[in-house]
């Protein structure tokens, strides 16, 4: 099995996918790509949330033409999502896209594949092969009868071979399925078979609630095995939510270096403050902090500081007041009404310290 650190490094703009323990966060816009204003505005929101590579659909000539202006106004690598039409791929490449998601076996005649590969080679642009359980090639479906992990691997190898025959190796592969065990199995087979970096995703995973859980189950299992170099959480929600979920997931496996972690207690009969509201407010506040600090929010002082000894900063509720503590040691008492503000100030101070060092 190829651990993510053993995969081939592939450059996408100024980001390298593969060859290290880094897992790059991706998302995809939901705007019409030809609407440059709306697309750029959404990409800026994604960048702010922590998105490192963004994909746009290129389904029309206008969309391909919009790439140039979008690219000029954003700060992260841009990927063109192409289905079938090699002319749109060529136009997107011509307009400066950093990566193309296209399956070479679906482009058609050999000269068309060669044209796309030549254009990618000239500009140092990688290709992502996107295997999807829902759209396997007819010959594979006929062989297996229905989508299987082995069939998905065969599909990946079919497209990989086409590129390798043209001496093209800047390849990234995804093996998406909406069925979690199928996706896990397919990615495992891929990691056992080739060393191209893997783009993880559970496709059509569902809404913010259900999709987050399914993505965490599937992608979490793979990340724990050391599989995956880039991740896209697919949700029927604002794509900013995808990035937030991806960051949280990577944090769980210590695969992100600049994100804070919130520890909050489940509450019990000992609770002395409105902990759920406090935890939600601090969680939202932490979304914009770029420092690996651990913050603890606990409902009472009985076990509070002791339960969160590992936290850099935290609060524990008391009657009408709370304790502010650092590394398990109480530093001062704060009236309940001022608790959240005091904690935010301490978080800011720690983040500043981190940025200065
Ligand atoms: Fe209960 Fe206090 Fe523990 Fe929270 S910190 S679960 S309120 S004992």
UniProtKB/TrEMBL annotation:
EC number per UniProt: 1.17.7.3
Pathway(s) served: Isoprenoid biosynthesis; isopentenyl diphosphate biosynthesis via DXP pathway; isopentenyl diphosphate from 1-deoxy-D-xylulose 5-phosphate: step 5/6
Keywords, comma-separated and alphabetical: 4Fe-4S, Iron, Iron-sulfur, Isoprene biosynthesis, Metal-binding, Oxidoreductase
Ranges that cross the membrane: none
Gene3D superfamilies (alphabetical): Dihydropteroate synthase-like (3.20.20.20), Sulfite Reductase Hemoprotein, domain 1 (3.30.413.10)
Domain IspG C-terminal residue range list: 262-348
Cofactor note: Binds 1 [4Fe-4S] cluster.
Domain IspG TIM-barrel: 7-246
Xref: Pfam families: GcpE, GcpE_C
One GO term (biological process): terpenoid biosynthetic process
Catalytic activity: (2E)-4-hydroxy-3-methylbut-2-enyl diphosphate + oxidized [flavodoxin] + H2O + 2 H(+) = 2-C-methyl-D-erythritol 2,4-cyclic diphosphate + reduced [flavodoxin]
Highest taxon, organism lineage: Bacteria
Binding positions ([4Fe-4S] cluster): 265, 268, 300, 307
One Gene Ontology term of the molecular function aspect: 4-hydroxy-3-methylbut-2-en-1-yl diphosphate synthase activity (ferredoxin)
Cofactor or coenzyme needed: [4Fe-4S] cluster
Keyword Oxidoreductase belongs to the record: yes
Entry's family note: Belongs to the IspG family.
Free-text function comment from the UniProt entry: Converts 2C-methyl-D-erythritol 2,4-cyclodiphosphate (ME-2,4cPP) into 1-hydroxy-2-methyl-2-(E)-butenyl 4-diphosphate.
Protein name: 4-hydroxy-3-methylbut-2-en-1-yl diphosphate synthase (flavodoxin)
Gene it is expressed from: ispG
């Amino acid at each position: 099995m190829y651990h993510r650190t053993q995969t081939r490094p592939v450059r996408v703009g100024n980001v390298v996918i593969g060859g290290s323990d880094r897992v790059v966060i991706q998302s995809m816009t939901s705007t019409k790509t030809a609407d440059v204003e709306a697309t750029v505005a959404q990409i800026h929101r994604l960048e702010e949330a922590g998105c490192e590579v963004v994909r746009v659909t290129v389904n029309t000539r206008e969309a391909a033409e919009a790439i140039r202006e979008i690219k000029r106004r954003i700060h992260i690598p841009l990927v063109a999502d192409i289905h079938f039409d090699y002319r749109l791929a060529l136009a997107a490449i011509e307009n400066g896209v950093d990566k193309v998601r296209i399956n070479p076996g679906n482009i058609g005649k050999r000269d068309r594949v060669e044209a796309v590969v030549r254009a990618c080679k000239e500009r140092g642009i990688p290709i992502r092969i996107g295997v999807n359980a829902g759209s396997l090639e007819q010959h594979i479906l006929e062989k297996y009868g229905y989508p299987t992990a082995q069939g998905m691997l065969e599909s990946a190898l079919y497209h990989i071979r086409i590129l390798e025959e043209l001496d093209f190796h800047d390849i990234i592969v995804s093996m998406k399925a909406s069925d979690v065990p199928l996706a896990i199995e397919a990615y495992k087979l891929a990691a056992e078979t080739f060393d191209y970096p893997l783009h993880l995703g559970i496709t059509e995973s569902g809404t913010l609630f259900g999709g987050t859980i399914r993505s965490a189950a599937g992608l979490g299992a793979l990340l724990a095995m050391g599989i995956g170099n880039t991740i896209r959480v697919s949700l029927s929600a604002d794509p900013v939510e995808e990035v937030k979920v991806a960051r949280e997931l990577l944090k769980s496996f210590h695969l992100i270096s600049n994100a804070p972690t919130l520890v909050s207690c489940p509450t019990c009969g000992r609770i002395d403050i409105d902990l759920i509201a406090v935890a939600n407010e601090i969680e939202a506040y932490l979304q914009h902090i770029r420092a690996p600090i651990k913050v603890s929010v606990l409902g009472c002082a009985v076990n509070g500081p002791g339960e969160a000894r590992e936290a850099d900063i935290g609060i524990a509720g008391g009657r009408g007041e709370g304790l502010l503590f650092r590394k398990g040691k109480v530093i001062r008492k704060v009236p309940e009404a001022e608790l959240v503000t005091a904690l935010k100030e301490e978080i800011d101070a720690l983040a500043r310290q981190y940025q200065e060092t």
